């Protein structure tokens, strides 16, 4: 075998090893989010019973690099016509297990969570009036000097929807339609007389006791 041929094979092997090492260990990649399947504008709280509005969305965050990304914080900026409001308090997790966002490792395979964005405690409430909205999601990575834009989403609140949102405990959901490639909005209002889980259990317990009590009386 020619020495030059062996040398060429060694160089190719070295280049492949270097490329593999770069793709696996050294390439930084970037943080990406999928199209949120649902977005919510409305009051905070399980029963929409807060006097402060929030923005909620569910999405998958993933890294384009094998090494993953360390996310320091998320926040959203909501634009309506000439108005702008930042929702900078980030809470994430699953229903019943939410936590204040204070750092999150995002692997290449990604993580799916509910993300809640609340208004700053010292700020005024933001009302969801009629108009065209642009929702921008920003991420701050560890080691980065400034936040980067992950996505910008255009949404619309009609006059009728804005009127419905003036009612207590009313919120608006935007559900993603994959075929139409757009969001479809609907209003949801939590009734004031909706029984809590404790009340439901109490009613069920009383019903199970009544026949026994009647039988004892006979």
Describe this structure in words.
The protein is of the alpha+beta class. Helices cover 23% and strands 44% of the residues. The protein is built from 3 helices and 13 strands, in the order αβββββββββββαββα. The chain has helices at 3-26, 159-164, 197-217; strands at residues 31-33, 38-43, 53-63, 69-80, 83-87, 89-94, 97-100, 104-106, 111-118, 131-141, 148-157, 170-177, 182-189. The strands form 2 sheets. Strands 1, 2, 3, 6, 7, 9, 12 and 13 form an 8-stranded antiparallel beta sheet that branches. Strands 4, 5, 8, 10 and 11 form a 5-stranded antiparallel beta sheet that branches. The longest helix is centred in the first third of the chain and has 24 residues, at 3-26. The N and C termini lie far apart (105 Å). Residues 212-217 have low confidence and may be disordered.
In short:
The chain has helices at residues 3-26, 159-164, 197-217, and strands spanning 31-33, 38-43, 53-63, 69-80, 83-87, 89-94, 97-100, 104-106, 111-118, 131-141, 148-157, 170-177, 182-189. With 218 residues, it is an alpha+beta fold.
Keywords:
218 residues; alpha+beta; Immunoglobulin-like; 8-stranded antiparallel beta sheet; 5-stranded antiparallel beta sheet; 13 strands; 23% helix; 44% strand; disordered C terminus
